[in-house]
Design brief:
homodimer, 9 helices, 4 strands
């Protein structure tokens, strides 16, 4: 099976959580919108079919079209062996993923607190207020939570990597880019998260992916944006 | 099995999506924090156990503790027959639920765009800006999406009710409370959503629940708040 991922072609964004899972599994996939006429294909596919997505990313897997990052990962977790099989651990992995999704949404809203349609430059003052709370209370609260979930284990579920580990790696990478000062503090307090980050980054397929041109750079077009005035 | 739901005792909030599923299924459950010493039990349970939740609601189901609304509903959907069994329809139901969760988060942020910790009164100007976009573009976009998903069917999955229908009912109820003008416009454009709302409200167990003291009222403490200045 060749998976088809539909996501914006120039940013990591929410699509990156899916890319990391596909890469770790060594799955065959096409990043559709990055091909020729890809944006046209993306926009056409977005509104088509019985199960349209509200927004990218979405994944075509044979006859299925699956939207929402956590839902895509739930599916891939099962089919690509990136999640535990037992019910309790499977549910827990998904719970962690949904909590990561909440953190990602909050990270986005630091630079767009008032309007997703307007420019950052038009909501800089409000962004500064929102980011202050994010940096001071939200990042530490989320990082403490994930460190507690990780405990002394290699991965969130113990010895075996899951899609939630890949996503936690990506969130740490994104927050390091966007809020380097705040993340340095958080990781100093929770060194287990740094170890998790390194462990994921060194997995052979992830390391190869990160070094490849398939890995897009972070930028001020994505979810994690580095505006120095928001980082304290 | 008697389920134990842990959620804030005085608001519908995110817990209501779980309550509606338990009620529709006729499940035996305790709304823990609404009992004597309930808040103490809630706070103690929140940080306890191997699988703690980042925030309420969470559900105890035998030996399992499950956090995140969509995750709880995924579990209850399977165990209480509130979701289709086939993979494609099961995934689609969860996708709709996660999209509803996005809408709920956006509805919350209309009155708290800058800080979740601060009062609405301290961010009224920013709330007015954020709500303007929510009312003008986001509500119509979400409502059009769900109406398209519903099409001419009785329920989102066809003939049988699922947890996503109950959640869509709750979102419509909440938006009607918070943004009556905007919702009247949206429902006029998408009468299928009004029919879905009525169909859910008239299900015997839901009707009995809505008429009971178990159903808390909407208020300006919850997610859906009626501030007339935000509704256009």
């Amino acid at each position: 099976m060749v998976y088809q991922l539909y996501y914006w072609p120039t940013i990591q964004g929410r699509g990156e959580f899916v890319r990391l899972a596909l890469e770790e599994a060594g799955a065959a996939y096409v990043d559709v919108a990055r091909g020729e006429h890809g944006m046209k294909e993306l926009m056409a596919a977005l509104a088509a079919g019985d199960h349209p997505s509200f927004a990218p990313p979405f994944l075509k897997a044979g006859a299925l079209t699956i939207g929402q990052v956590a839902n895509i990962l739930l599916y891939l977790g099962e089919h690509l062996h990136l999640a535990p099989r037992g019910e309790a651990a499977r549910i827990w992995t998904h719970q962690l993923q949904l909590t990561i999704a909440d953190l990602v949404a909050e990270a986005h809203d630091t630079h767009h607190p008032v309007s997703s349609d307007a420019y950052y430059e038009d909501q800089k003052l409000e962004a500064k207020q929102r980011a202050a709370e994010f940096v001071k209370t939200r990042i530490p609260k989320f990082m403490d939570y994930f460190a507690k979930a990780l405990a002394d284990n290699d991965y969130l579920n113990g010895a075996h990597v899951s899609y939630a580990d890949l996503s936690l790696f990506q969130v740490i990478a994104g927050l390091r880019y966007a809020f380097p000062k705040a993340l340095a503090r958080a990781e100093k307090k929770q060194p287990a998260l740094t170890r998790l980050f390194d462990r994921v980054a060194q997995r052979p397929r992830i390391a190869a992916y990160l070094a490849s041109p398939r890995r897009l750079p972070f930028s001020e077009e994505g979810i994690f944006r580095h505006y120095p005035e928001l980082d304290h």
